[in-house]
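Appendix B. One record, verbatim.
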Amino acid sequence: MDIGRETFLQIVISAVAVVLFISAAVTVSQTYVVDSNLSPTGGYALVGAIGLFVVFMTAAGLWLERQQF
């Protein structure tokens, strides 16, 4: 099975974004735990990680859409 360059780039960018998001979520959950619960600061950090993931995926999608393959 042969995939195109555009499809390959989409897969790689998406996989990198997901790995970065999961690592950020794990880091936040390990850093901001108080008595087996996530602290309010950790909640804000987790929301920030989700927001950055959305912004990154949006920017990557726009960049990929504007490329001439």
